[in-house]
Design brief:
Length: 509
Amino acid sequence: MANMLRSSLADGQAEEQVGLRDLNEPLIDHSEGQLFLSKAFKIIVEEVLCKGTDISQKVCEWKDPEELARLLDLELRATGEPQHKLLERVSDVAKYSIKTSHPRFFNQQYGGVDYHALAGRFLTEALNTNLFTYEVAPVFVLMETEVLRGLRQLVGWTEGDGLFCPGGSTSNMFAMNLARYRLFPEVKSRGLWGLPRLTVFTSSESHYSVNKGAAYLGIGTDNVIVVKVDDGGRMIPEDLDEKITLAKSQGTVPFLVSCTSGTTVQGAFDPLDRIADVCEKHKLWMHVDAAWGGSVLFSKQHRHLMKGVDRANSVGWNPHKMLLAGLQCSVLLLQDTTNLLKRCHCANASYLFQQDKFYDVNLDVGDKSVQCSRKVDCLKLWLMWKAVGSAGLEERVDKAFIHVRYLVEEMKKREGFQLLREPEFVNVCFWFIPPSMRGKEGHADYQERLAKVAPVIKERMMKQGTMMVGYQPLGNKVNFFRVIAFSPLLSKKDMDFFLDEIERLGNDL
């Protein structure tokens, strides 16, 4: 028994010694970790930034889901892997991911790469702080304030408020929440109990986040009133006025009009000045979803598309789109100077937002958001803006319009390309008519056959990896392509390649 006791004590002392040794040493080896990081960074530069922007390389390395899961070996296990294996993982992730910086990635409203913004993104990740109080994010509280001020000036406001948000959908939802709170501040404490039926107005081509916001905030999608658009996809102010009047006569309380500057599909710009007249007449909050089109404000030549934006109450804008700030970089800008954003969203958490701090507590901006943890999204835009200036950002916008004009003119020279209409922005929407279907527009099955063309061409380009472009139906229009041409990496050669490749992939259909 004594021997067993001594053995037990010895084991306990040994475990205690191991425990003490572990407590006196960090679990992470900095030299080993930094070596891994430097090797991983080399892979990222080579695979993503060199090969991923090289037109001789593929945009995507398509694999079916089952094969891709097997190649990536996604299962998580109890024991870790050696560094050489982890570096293979990094390489595989890069290899099989879509190269969104590739000049021939035309698929979405983001893409390309700005290296200053990318450096800001790397630095943001390395610093890993939370943008809610000055004590933990002093640099970024001041930086965000300055970037928001610069963006508001472009809108035309000398004063106001704002916030970086996790995406344009959130910006739109925040605007909806603010508009409701301004009209019915008691909703914050009492909830929907006792509120009248509220109605929101937006165009038939607005972003789906308006409907999502209405559902999320308890307003209800049935209370989103759809306003007619003209042939170019722009909201018709006269129809808006009539629908607001009708809604009032039915006992509802209109409170928000959500306009769009740069619709997702056609790139249409609602006539903001005329809509502002309607909003002022009915005393409604006017929000402009400029997530896609807001960057025209940098361009003296094209900012007229948003004439009247200075009359809005709020503007949502995504610099991660046309400006290439990188995902995600989205702002909500407000004309309000009454601290509405904070009053609407604050919870006054005493463990974060103490009022007896040794610095100005107005610098603690976190209570303006419904988030607690909030990623730093201002650094990438600030560093890029510092690098190229407003003039450089203006040049990017103007160049995108030039590329689109070139692409449209070249389309008109080729048989088989049919535009939906002349583009207002940098969205070019068109059908490709294969040779076998040309001249057969009057046939009964023409629309049914045309609807199948874009999906087949898309499948072929994805599996071959040559480029990426999106397609969709719209209203009674069957599937058509929507090419987004805005990346500063683009050249006329890429525009010519795009047209040639559509023909090559679709001529036999």
